Amino acid sequence: GCGKSTLLRMVAGLERPSRGEVLTRGEPIESPSPERMMIFQEPALFPWLTVERNVAFGLELAGVSKEERQGKVNQMLEKVGLRDFRHFYPSQLSGGMKQRASIARAFVMDPEILLMDEPYGALDALTRMAMQNELLSLWEGSGKTVLFITHDVDEAIALGDRVLVMRARPGKVIEELVIDLPRPRNRSGERFSTLRHEILELLGVHPKG
């Protein structure tokens, strides 16, 4: 890889840079914080807790009252379409449902930054597109900063306001593109196709047509 996941883990405070520093609001990141919540490709749910308890876990640790906690969890489960699955355990859920639960657990903590490490990489194409649309709805309703790692060029263009293109050996950002397309985005549109070709060219892939 080119260090995408390593960069995300440094922003999360899970790893330290070998040189330099990572800053947020001008302050160095030295350890994990509830202000920066991370979602991994494989849902990191507690198998012995129900969906409802998994989503409530961080709030419980933070000392949020039971009444307030229940209200926040109910609202978030409704937003991600898991209200009717609140008493299910992770083993009873599909891959998409597990990832919805992981996203709900992160969003319910009201972090400043949401860090997503290829969260839809293991999902089938239709589920992946549905999850992308759900994420956009959550993002539009919250205004949160989302740092999203993906190797899928179309996913980057469909979701991002800015796309940072990285290359390996050594891992570095080689280009930043502003995605100035209106939402919802037309993946078959001319501007979308132009951006796709531009990014693929930067990555050394020369698409035909």
**CATH homologous superfamily name?**
P-loop containing nucleotide triphosphate hydrolases
How many DSSP E strands? 7
Helix/sheet category: alpha/beta
Low-pLDDT sequence parts: none
Please give the alpha-carbon distance between the first and last residues. 28 Å
Q: How would you describe the shape?
A: globular
Determine the CATH topology.
Answer: Rossmann fold
Mean pLDDT equals 92
How many independent structural domains?
1
Helix content: 40-55%
Proportion of beta-strand residues: 5-15%
> Which CATH architecture would you pick?
3-Layer(aba) Sandwich
Rg over C-alpha atoms, rounded to the nearest angstrom:
18 Å
Query: What's the tally of helices?
Result: 7
Topology pattern, helix = H, strand = E: HEEEHHHEHEHEEH
* Strand numbers in spatial order across the main sheet: 3-4-5
The profile of the biggest β sheet is:
3 strands, parallel
Kindly provide the name of the CATH class.
Alpha Beta
Structure description:
This protein has 209 residues and is of the alpha/beta class. The protein has a single domain (4-151), classed as P-loop containing nucleotide triphosphate hydrolases (Rossmann fold). The protein is 41% helix and 15% strand. The protein contains 7 helices and 7 strands. It has helices at residues 4-12, 51-61, 66-79, 95-107, 125-142, 153-159, 190-202, and strands spanning 23-24, 27-28, 36-39, 113-117, 145-149, 162-167, 172-178. A 3-stranded parallel beta sheet has the order 3-4-5, with helices on both faces. The chain has a two-stranded antiparallel sheet with strand order 1-2. It has a two-stranded antiparallel sheet with strand order 6-7. Helix 3 (66-79) packs across helix 4 (95-107). The mean pLDDT is 92.
